[in-house]
Amino acid sequence: METESEPYVRLATLRQLHQVMADMNTARSLADTLQTVADGVVTGLGYELACVNLVRGDGDLVVAAFSGNPAAEALITGRVGSRDSWDRRLAMGENWGDLVFIPHTEGWVLDDDDVPQWYTDGPAPRFEDEWHPSDRLFAPMYAPGGSSSELLGVLSVDRPRNGRRPGAWGREALQVYAFQAAIAISNARLRANMQRALVRLEREQQALRASEESFRQAFEYAPSGMAIAEMGGDQHGRILRTNDALCRLLGRPASAMRRYSFSDLVHPEDIGTLLRTSAEGGRAELRLARRDGGYVWVSLRNSVVADAADGPRFLLTHVEDIEERKRRELHLAHRASHDSLTGLPNSAELRARLAARLCRRPQSACPGEPDSLDAAYGHPAYDAADAAHGFDFASVPQSYDAYDHHVHTIAPEGDRDDGAKGLAVLFCDLDGFKSINDRFGHNAGDAVLIEVARRLSDGVRDGDTVARLGGDEFVILADGLGRADAQDLAVRLRNEIIQPIRAEGRAVRVGASFGIGWAHCGMTADEVLKSADERMYVEKRSRPKQHRRAG
User: Could you give the C-alpha distances from 218 to 73, 171, 225, 227, 285, in angstroms and in order?
Assistant: First the structure.
């Protein structure tokens, strides 16, 4: 039967519970919330000891908060009990609603499991509902909401102050408290996760801002040119941003650069190189137009960057000035393929140009129709400098067959002019040159060779080749000539050569002998040159001897 004082005790307890629950929901952190839950059991529900066992990410339970006994708190706080042991505890004993009570008569089987505990033995109870030191009372805390509630933790309580097992009202109060504690812990976890997410977001934003600033400084103050261009859409390739180095290199302000794409600025001869360059990670060496109308050799290196995970993509282009390197390369290529004295193509370059115009099939087996690809790539006017400017036979498609798509070379037949136009090879040998070297020295001989080279170059058409084979021997490659045309050309060149030449302060004269050969398919370059050489000696032997003094 309820005593007169019990309603007042319950009212005071309810007031204390209200205050404790308010404190639980206003705690600043998850740790504060857990400690407030443990303290509330002691201050609001009338127990001397309380422990909050919190479920970790791996499923085991850790002692996260303790209240009522500093010595026990220091002993077990932070210790972990396995989930299996806790499941065994919650499945045995008496169910008081949502609570689990394990009396001291059954609890002895739990003494050796790994759940942290502080229980002690004592004398047998003196009356039926007396609390024994080895009694255990647990209040599971489940996450609010959902049909299958998730276990958040377990409240362990001990030593009721009145020394009795809790009655119906005390059990109900502990269940309500555990339910409210679960809500408070869930909210505290949510707040903690949100705070961690906000801190992580702020750090990521700070890192992004630092990265953007680092990129901006690296872009703006890079010693070489940098540009950002659009990818895709109607404005594909349009330059969006340039740094000072690129503007200085091209002599154009940044505002003007935004009106162009690199295809607008590239040299017409290099547009193919630009188009063949892959936008994603591609590289190319080409010429870009400066504001003053000149061109500068640059190396382009492209990389693709994204503005966001699924946002627009941009092309980041690194532009390096390679004008000096290209100038050296062109100079070295010219030196390797040209005579150092006269500046004419040398013997190796002559043979390369002639070989590029011939194929090894017999003349009767060649198709005979010019092909536009060969007309561009196989012309004898092809120079080694063209290779240095970007042309490479390796870039010709693999389907290209030099035999099936060859520019057929036609050689006139017989000694009369039959109207056929072919590739004439004029072999020129200077007469009397040795005597100039012997009488006036090599400087005079060099001056004669330089002047003869100039006169030969002035006497041929654009696209014809004048080369120095070695010593006082020169070769002219002239395409599209008939037999009479070739003979007229040889006469004109001889008449130019025999004019007086000023060397070492005196006028000297040299003669010239020409042999005319014809290139056609099935011949090698050496065979063509040999045939022209042989015809020159035939011409020399057929001419009457002339006794002319040199100088």
Answer: 56, 69, 11, 12, 23
Determine the length of the chain: 551
Structure tokens at 436: 């100039």
Q: What share of the chain is helix, strand, coil (3-state, %, to 5)?
A: 45, 25, 35
Better pLDDT: 27 or 495: 495
Distance CA 311, CA 348 (A): 55
- Name the CA radius of gyration of the chain, rounded: 50
Closest Cα to residue 103, out of 114, 113, 92? 92
pLDDT score of 410: 65
- Residue 290: what pLDDT? 93
pLDDT in tens, 427-467: 999 999 999 988 999 899 999 999 999 999 999 999 899 99
User: From CA 14, how far away is CA 328, in angstroms rounded?
Assistant: 95
Determine the Cα–Cα distance for residues 294 and 250; give it in Å rounded to an integer: 9
How many Cα atoms within 13 Å fall on the side-chain side of residue 68?
25
What integer pLDDT is reported at residue 457 of this predicted model? Answer: 94
Contact 378/391 with Cβ under 8 angstroms?
A: no
Matching residue, tokens 């060969």 = 374
3-state SS, residue 321: strand
Closest CA to 184 of 62, 45, 38: 38
b/e 192-201 (16+ beta carbons within 10 angstroms → b): eeeeeeeeee
Strand (E) or helix (H) holding 303: strand 295-306
CA 98 to chain centre: 61
For residues 497 and 511, the answer to whether their CB atoms sit within 8 Å is yes
pLDDT of 547 above 90:
no
Q: What angle do CA 402, 405, 406 make, to 5 degrees?
A: 70
Strands 151-160 and 225-230: unpaired
**Using the 8-state DSSP alphabet, how is residue 518 labeled?**
E
pLDDT at 12: 61
Dihedrals φ, ψ of 368, to 5°? 95, -10
Instruction: Concatenate the DSSP letters of all residues of 84-147 into one string.
Output: HHHHHHHHSSEEETTEEEE-HHHHGGGTTSSS-------PPPSSTTBPPTT-EEEEEEE-SSSS
User: H or E stretch including 287?
Assistant: strand 283-289
Expressed in angstroms, the distance from the first to the final Cα of the chain is: 153
Model confidence over 233-271: pLDDT tens digits? Answer: 666 778 999 999 999 999 999 999 988 988 899 999 998
What is the torsional sign of CA 378, 379, 385, 391? Answer: negative
C-alpha–C-alpha distance, residues 330 and 386, integer Å: 9
